[in-house]
## 1
Amino acid sequence: MSLQHRARPGDGAPPTGFPSAAVRRAGARPAALVPLALGGVLAVSVVLALTIGPADISLLQVARSAADRVAGTSPAGADAAALSSVQQAILWELRLPRLLTAAFVGAGLALSGAVMQALTRNPLADPYLLGLSSGASLGAVSVLLLGAAVVLPVAAFAGAMAALVLTLSLAAAAGSINPSRTVLAGLAVSSAASALTSFIIFFSSKGDSYREVLNWLLGSLAGSTWTSVTISAAAFLLAGIPILLSGGLLDGFSFGDNAAGALGLNVPVLRWVLLAGTAVLTGAMVSVSGSIGFVGLILPHAVRLLTGARHRVLLPAVALAGAVFLVWADTLARTVFEPREIPVGIVTALIGAPVFAVLLWRRKAQS
Amino acid sequence: MSAAGSIAAAGELRAHGLSYSAGQRVILSGIECALPGSAVTGLLGPNGAGKSSLLRLIAAVLKPTSGQVSLAGTDLRSMKRKVRAQHLAFVDQQVDVDVPLSVADAVLLGRLPYRPAYAPETTRDELIVQRSLAQVGLEGFGARRLDSLSGGERQRVHIARALAQETGVLLLDEPTNHLDLSAQAGVLDLLRGLALGGSTVVAALHDINLTAAYCDHVIVLAGGRVVASGETASTLTPGLIRSVYGVPAVRLDNPLTGRPVFAFGGRDQR
Amino acid sequence: MFSTTRYLATAGALILLAAGCAGPSQTSSPVEPPGGTAAAGYPATIDNCGTQVTFEAAPERVVTIKSTATEMLLSLGLGSTIVGSAFADGPLPDAHADARIPVLSEQLPGTEATLALEPDLVYGGWESNFSAEGAGDRASLEALGVRTYVSPAACKAEGYKPDPLTFDSIFDDITEMGRIFGVEARADLVVSQEADKLAAITPDGSGLSALWYSSGEKTPYVGAGTGAPQLLMETVGLRNVAADIDDSWSAMSWEAVAAADPDVIVLVDAAWNTAQQKVDHLTANPATAKLRAVRESRYLTVPFAGGEAGVRSVDTARSLEDQLRLLDPLDP
């Protein structure tokens, strides 16, 4: 082993003898392109999905109507491509807010999943695992059925946060917080929250009012409005963007808390801040869409195959892929059985479960 | 960063009255020791003696119940985390990593203490990654996935990460665990090379003969206390081994290296 | 198609078929007291949603679940047989306003609470009322000597479910109930009165389309192609925008509703989800606010219990007819 090249600490000059081509780490550049490519896919997806639905509206009509809205002109009545006022409402008050909500919710859930998998170093972690989704659902169902005087997103966030605190306290009560204890505590909290939710539904639903709750528990983007867009977008800007920027720090957790601490990271504070961020994200997303499963679990695994595990690249890619995934899953949910529609949570579960099986199988085959 | 260099040269890493308890259980008490620079120090002791805890206390990832660890007279815990991470690197016991991280990305983590939280890595960071990989003999492995490497290669990657931290002190917990004979020798040769270059290297080990063969100094722990410390040749004696491990031992000279080697009898033999 | 004579012929034939013995009197006769001429028709075996139920005698202690069951017995003059009613969808119609019915529970009662009343018949409006967590499953109740009966319009099994629901089948249900309690003559009278009222309904001829909005804000739950909503709308001349969905009720997307842009919206009014709440939601949502029926406030209202097939169905249709007549004509 040659040691003569070892620079002394404090030796400011980079070592010589490395041609710049060797410096470019193989594989790093293509991975960095993945978020860019996914961004393009997302933009195209939203435009395409805008033209798909029970009501017949062509791409041309969408473009015309968009141009009219941007220009502030009212569509010329004689124009064959012009949309009626109801068609315009379908496009701009039903489809677009729903698509954008799907994109933000997908991005938020996938991002939460990736962060939780990193922080707990558990590949099965997702917003469900630590009880966040169940907690958020409990908060929201309490509002829906018991008429608690809090607005839905606040209740859902409070539920998610309470579940998180409970999970981590439970894990800490059993000793130091470690990944497997956290997961077990999450399971316990999740079960308790689900049971309470069922209890509330069972005892307070009247006539057919349980249907709305059921839709909601299965996860549905039906009925998304511009308010849903505002809530999900605000949560994403508030919590999602800072998390996206923390990719480099999350990487420090790759080899355990001790290694992370030795790299100069404030492990407990970072963990709490990031987990609280995911609670904000999950709570907000659950409040607009109900608890949609598998997005937070599957997307990080699938995207890692493309980008590798570096969070600086993985996190933006996961957020974008989550958005694309949910936009299309919801397009399926609202069109496959038209004029009926099914909760999108059923679609994500139907796609997610087999995909997860394939991912597990691939991992097994690799190792 | 010149400070790091002088600290490494001075090698003044010391534990003062260090104690640590987990709940009611006392793990370590009253540890006094000096960890010299330009040398490999082995931490020896039976399971549960507190080797890992001591190493983590020195790395300042555990908070002592009392006492302190100082580097060049400065309490480590009074330093900013990042500054501390520019002085001390720590390689934990091997954890199973099944995240598809590339070798270069894993080593790049060693540059975290030198960057603002949200800044991307620089070309200089990438150069240091290359240099660190070369130092551990893994040139050209940068693009490989960590989980495609052998145990010995993976341990070298972790050491390269510590090297990328450009610290004067390198702490390792059981770096030869689960490695085959040649990989063990490879890792320990590497550590010796680093010590020759001026680093303070501290490794918790459980193999007495590996310790005897590769460590300049040794600290022997039993029941959470230091029972012996000093130069390896004079500190590691059959009597000490017997009292600490309850196993009779004979000291021989290794005809290949000239270093001491121990042969052990059964636990109940007299 | 709803002529009285044709109906009576069908009903009579059905009774003969079901009984397999000398049929009961088919002529209308004055109201008889419950059980008055019972003994002759028993034991009576009835195929109810695929479950064979045999009555040895007219039931005397009945638990009714849901409004349709309670109202059916009340209109047959059998109110005194009800030992407990449960899970009412809303208040009783005016005709029965002074009926004194003991209430077992506001919601679906449990098995033990149901059995505690020692009923000889549990009569449910929905099949799902007979779950283990509810009044008890049908086989277990039968094993305990308690007969069970589900409003046939609520049957879910293939061959039993309404396909689609007709007034003939609703009238058959009344006749069947008359047979179970041995009050055939009273049942026939009720049927002929309802059939007469039905025949008097004049469907609206202007070809209006309509949405039956039952519940749900995010996804509307609407009256679909085969159940009571479809039958009622058809009867008053409304074209159901969800007629193509092969179900009694169904979820439908707001987009599909908007694309159909119905002329009229029928709102189901329930205490837990009032018609006004639905109007508020329709007006507040920018997409549904653009619907013609919403812009022009062209709403009809139906109490929740009226939306379920039963002895009240003709009255519900008449109410829809009246409300429809009061609406302003469509804006050009």
## 2
Amino acid sequence: MKPAPFTYHRAHDVRGAVESLHELGEDAKLIAGGQSLVAMMNFRLARPSALIDVNRIDALRYLRRDGEGLRIGALTTHHTVESSGSTAALAGFGVLSHAARWIGHYPIRTRGTIGGSIAHADSTAEWCLLAVLLDAQIVVRGQVGERSVAAADFFHGFLTTALEPEEMIVEILFPRPAPHAALSEFAQRKGDFAIVAAAVDLDVEDGVCSAGRIALGGVDAVPIRVPEAESLLQGAPATAETFRAAADAAAAAVEPGSDAHGDADYRRGLARTLIERACAQAIAV
Amino acid sequence: MTSLLGDLTVAPPAPVRPRPSPAPPRPASPEPSAVPDTEPPADAPGLPPAPDAGPERSRSVIGSRVPRHEDDRLVRGQGKFVDDVDRPRQAHVRIVRSTVAHARLVAVDVAAARAVPGVVFVLTGADLIGLPPIPIRLPRGDEPPGCLQPVLAHDEVRYVGEPVAAVVAEDPYLAEDAAELVTVEYADLPVVVDASTAEPATGFDVSYGDAEAAFATARHVVEIDVSVGRHAAVPMEPRGLVADYDEATGVLEIWGATKVPVFNRNVIATMLDLPASRVHLHAMDAGGGFGARGEFYPEDLLIPWLARRLRRPVKWAEDRAENLVALNHSRQQRHRIAAAFAVDGTLLALRDHVVHDNGAYLRTHGLLVPELTVTMLPGPYRLPAYAARIDVVLTNKTPCGTYRAPGRYEGTFAREHLLDVAADRIGIDRAEVRRRNLLTPEELPHRRDLRALGTDVVLDAGDYPGLFATALARTRDWATEARQLRERGRTVGLGFAVFLEKSGLGPHETADVTVEQDGEVTVHSGGTSLGQGIETVLAQIAAQRLDIDDRAVHVINGDTNLQPFGVGSWASRSTVVGGSAVDLAATAVLERALQVAARVLGVPAEQVRLTGGCFSAIGEPGRRLSWGDVAGACAPGSPHLRPEDTPGLSARRVFAVDHMTYPYGVHVALVDVDRDTGHVEVLRYLVAYEVGRAINPTLVEGQLIGGVAQGLGGALYESFVYDQQGQPQATTFMDYLMPTAEEVPRRVDTLVTEDAPSPGNPLGVKGAGEGGITAVAAATANAVRDALGLTGDVGALPLSPHRVVALSR
């Protein structure tokens, strides 16, 4: 469990990081919190020829609210989001600070970053799921400038994204508040990657859902939305019966794989349970 | 010293003082007396009198909760673990391991690895042809041929992780880089993963009475088919070794051996053709052993072999990825177990067909785990007839060995789960079926017509129904709580299990006790410090006998030069066998000290008393000799040392024992099951355990609580899963799930009783290392079964969430 040889470089700003990516070639990797990458390197499952350390780019650590929504700098740690629940920036985004508590353990949350998690693209990762649920924009910068990719288009497959080799995630933009959103997940032990995770975002007024969004992780290679279930929420009373019907529809719609932690049926059952639980939490807030 | 002694005058005669004698075992009392949870006052009731207690005695060291001697260095970061050892000029080893489960080794090409700058040497199986395979430490004599593991594979590999080559380099990074360049050509052979469909390599029967007749005529016959998953000890610290060969002296020094250093020394000496006296294994701290760590593995020969060959120190530190495929696995068994009952629930016979998956080879434990499984399976019950068959299957998976409570964890689960299913079928209370069949105190000692580990099974002192009743009384509130929670819609269940342990396996252990002239006492024991606190316990035993502060006793465990007769720390034996040896050696030192003190004091030895840690003559309490004074009087040059005397104040004694001693206990678990996710939360847990005599109650409780935490792994979380090609699927802690603080109940209740001291040793002690884990699978599975209201059994362990969801449907 010693990593293969690599060279180490430190970037002091985004321009420098992107230039280093260009100079060092496509086997170079950015390292932020390193909570997934270092473990993969020690197992030699990842063998970057060079690491570009972006941890000194303090300009990417922020939570900011403006007319376009909530902007979170890519190097903001999970713990910062978790502990910012009562700040003005996160008004209407309580789901983010609540969901951050599901991420790993405390030491992991103090080092791991939201940008790193999105770039790693584990399908059960809380940020990936919430980005898809809340229609986040992933802001990336490369040699030629900045572009935004909708979360729905960002995740391509297992640990694979729309990020080009010479690009760096600089910001996650959440365009609209989600006061009735919640995330629920199940792992056998506290802090483990979820077997299945469910996140919901409901538009509720006077006890009626005008619309709702449901996203699932752990049932496909990427976090997915479940339109078959979302349509059942539209215009329906915000009741347990409605949520159960949507959860049943979601469970029927997904086609999860099987592994040592559970087969497809078990995962479908988890999806159903977790959607119901997330909905119940979403209308409770 | 002379001036002090010169002031002494002859004491008047006094009545003869009784010689030190072992504390007599107290009779078992009907009401178990729990160990108090605070330090007892002097002459506290419930504790046996200290062996040397005189009227002036202020306190008993045995039985008191003295702080662990090990902790001072460990919490300061001053412990010395194998990876802390570095030798000048040392080279680092990386083991190349098989990536396939079963194949003929066609070629091992090391040219590229050898060519890497900084690579010192590359070793393959071809270099070791002629070296015998790793021997069995505890042979039965009927092991089948061809089952032992070679040090390095040379014509065939039998599991993923089997050592194929070793790369030695200037640093560990380089070694790992170069190891990747070793190319191995494999020709695939058929892979056996599922033991239940494979031909056994061997097997044996254990039986007594006429089980067949009992089953034929019984009113009730209940059978279940249950399995325990493959899991392992996984100590916090992986293995490691440093070896250094001094050509000038011919001495090979080794750091990193734990558990059985003298046995390992002898194997190394034999395999390397060195005199055993020239091989020196040092005492080390170790981050947990649990039966697996410290056995003789391929690396235990490879590292010394390389140090000797290369004439430079060689270091190997196992990483976790290796540890999970290289260290002994354990536990994987299927039990088709049945019981025959009379109409009133009286147990008439038990039969079991066990399939034991031992992985690819028989390692140092040989057939020990299968043997313990079937010989201990009857447990604490009155069982007129018994017939067990165990088939031992070799599969293409990591070889298996012992793991804390080997055979008993598995067998207790099978038996206690069967009793619950049977009670429900017969229609009697689950507690009542046990009450009716537990052996009573009047029936003990009870000889079973079978042998375990070469010893007759004679269940010694105990009150099994008494402890069971106490445990149930202690948890009566839990039954109420369970009912209330159920009324609120929760899926809650209560489960219990009664178990019999074994401890104090011989054949012997040796201890040296030496009093230095400064009054400090040194103990050299054959046990090893694996984190269990044995240094503290042995110090307490010596301090008790010598009437001194335990802090004045320094225990060195497992150094093969200091204690060349050590047998080691395993099988819950160190306190029982090692502690008794210390007691005997300390007693011998005391007798010698009384003689020499008498010379100094000028009185007959019968008139010398040891009080408050000092020797004085009866009637002259003002003239006192310290232990240091007496040691000084035994030193060369002392006027009190006679020509025929051995100089120094020291004794080496051996304690030999023919029979094991059998502790017992009860586990009770209260669980809350989430039917939707399958999550099992253990709300409350109790271990009631009869330990004979607790040398240090805090350490006994620590052993029990730690055992519960570890045992929940096999019950609910841990499983080494393999795919059909024999590829391990749980190779990191992401997939091999060990319980953490979050998964263990916040509070594990312990009830330690001392009502049935063992008659087989001078201290009356029974081992405490395993009773915390023995019945965890049983009690937890019974609680889950209760929660879900199952009529049948739970099937296979661990009860991971997807299995629980399947059961609840």
## 3
Amino acid sequence: MDERSSEIALIHKAQALNLKKEHRRQSFWVALMWLFGLITVSILILVVGYVLLKGGTAINWEFLTTPPKGGLSGEGGISTTIGTTFYLVGLTLLIATPLGVGAAMFLIEYAGEQSLGSKFLRSMISIANFAVETLAGIPSIIYGLFGYALFVSTLKFGFSLLSAALAGACLVLPTIIRTTEEALLAVPDDYRRGSLALGATKWQTLYRVVLPASTPGIITGIILSVGRVISETAIFYVTLGGSYRMPTSIMDSGRTLALHLYYLAMDTRAFDKAMGTGAVLVVMIILINLLIDFVSRKLTAGVRRVR
Amino acid sequence: MNDTKLETINYSLYYGKFRALKDISIKIPKNKVTALIGPSGCGKSTFLRSFNRMNDLIPGVHTEGSVLIDGEDIFKVDPVALRQNVGMVFQKPNPFPKSIFENIAYGPRVTGLKDHHKLEEIVERSLRSAALWDEVKDNLGKSGLDLSGGQQQRMCIARALAVEPTVILMDEPAASLDPIATLKIEDLIHELSANYTIVIVTHNMQQAGRVADFTAFFYTDESRTGQLVEFDETKKIFTSPRDRRTEDYITGRFG
């Protein structure tokens, strides 16, 4: 008995010693993670700060409201490129949102149904799922080349908003499909069962309960896509062309902010204007991210309060 | 004696190759409370879901034998129409993330009712029937998710009533509730049985004893295939069961 209690005392001592060591070890790793975190944040602040400071001096009302003059000097402002950016974002999402949301609804809500039980269909569906995964990781220039080959040359849409929006829709479709799929999967099956048990059809269940509950996720996907369209360059270089004039129809060429930035940096000596354009872009991206945050908070407020 | 509302004849259900229910024949009387009791995994919830064809939603399920409602084969009825006639309350309260009003109005709305005045009437009547009206009448715009668990469950009952069903299936409706909320639900079941045929699955034998006019005892052996052992008036099941297994279960020797 006595032997046992001294043994236990020894164990306790060893445990206390070990705990001290573990505390030191923990402090070390926590400090290291803090350091990494600080480095990451600093890089971010440095990049954004540099662009904003450098570009900020170039930004004024005139810069924002006059069109670029073109040529090597890079004179003029960025008004038409802001306009073109908005047009392109709008047109791209007009095409991509219904397609993407519809595809996700099919894949999640209908593809698993028994009535679609044929082998052929099932393998088509797994191919579709695989394709969505893969397409999300393909470099945007590939979409650009595809868009160029199909929309610009074969379908003869030329360098135009239409070609660019179609190519851009291909680019953001995987994003919209994936975020919508995740949003739909996050809707508890209790809601679906509850609705069906009340004598609602499957479509009514989707339309009245599942879709509203997944709206925050879907909107997040859409806003992410907006950011993608705003910031992509390569894909639009080969589909939208580079006209710095304001497009007056969807068959006109144009220049988004990011594209304009590229032209300024590569073809002109107007480095300050490039920085100014960059600053406007960065501000837009920040605003979009704040918007995502706001929207998902606002819309999930009602849903998250469950239990 | 009693009119039969729901009936199964030699009813079996399979999940793929696995037989979950075997040869069940039962006549559930109209406007009475019938409790389905038995140990876990004996198929009583699966059996309950047979009456509103919710099992149809599970891939790989097929059935043999027949299920009748008012003498009519339920597999010949449109499942959507069937579910409007056979309401269901789930184990976990499942309000939609909508206001209390919209939760109750959901069923009438999906069946095509648009008149707001009518909807208001239905919402009030349903909430009154579910003994919830006085607690929520000033807050109908509040989210259904903000109610307590017991209130949520009564709201779900009101939601089912709003579609004017004749049958209400309840799958352990008080399993996630505290004793006081449970008591309220039981009182409610008792009141509703005047106008509705209620089938309730419960793990709680005292509950079956308190609320049910009739009790069906389900049992399963190693095969995990559920079968109906005994069905009778609750009094008889609890005081003089005919089957040994029923007696063992009732007296708490297993389960």
